[in-house]
Design goal:
- 20% of the residues are buried.
- It contains 4 helices and 10 strands, in the order αααββββββββββα.
- The protein folds into 2 domains: 73 residues; 121 residues, Cupredoxins -  blue copper proteins (Immunoglobulin-like).
- It starts with 6 loop residues before the first helix and ends with a helix.
- The strands form 2 sheets. The chain has a 5-stranded mixed beta sheet with strand order 3-2-1-5-8, with no helix packed on it. Strands 4-10-9-6-7 form a 5-stranded mixed beta sheet.
- By secondary structure, the chain is an alpha+beta fold.
- α1 runs antiparallel to α3.
- A hairpin with a 4-residue loop joins β2 and β3.
Amino acid sequence: MQDALRVTIEQIVYFHDYLIIVIAIILSVVGYFLIFVLITKTYSRRIVADHLVERVWTILPIVVLIFLVYPSIYLLYLIDESRVEFLCTLKVIGHQWYWSYKIDGLLNIEIDSYIDADSSVRLIDVDNRVVIPAQEYIRALITSADVLHSWALPALGVKIDAIPGRLNQFVFIVIMHSIIHGQCREICGVNHSFIPIVLEVVRLKDLLY
């Protein structure tokens, strides 16, 4: 996974690591008993018929699920759109095969962002980067001018479909200055691999002056 640049994706990574630990424990316990039976040839109908064993393998999964419920619900509420005051609106329009951006409420900039074929970073750099402020809430509105696209930035935990005739919205905040790379994640034609996304995150005062 890429380094997290948003609180939500940080929590997703923590939850992923937590799940891996739980899965490893389950696999270890089940694997131990399976190998034990296969090697020792120990098998008893009394064990299978024992009601205590049935209770254990019914209650134990319930306990495991209880330990997974709280972080899952917490993440769902965290991912849900926050009712916050955003500094500006970033309008994103997908095209075959480039992105158009317009920033309202801050600098009122409108640019087209094409892949930079001459860049030393192959296939993931663009000629016009979108510059946004760090540690400020930004609303993004995503749509498409032709076919289905998907505006995806793994470092932010974002994958928003760009659908013709429909606006998808989310509010995000980037926690540090950085350059964020992403790509279209919806097959949109022969040049689907050649419409990267690049956000450059700077201090607000540097952006204004």
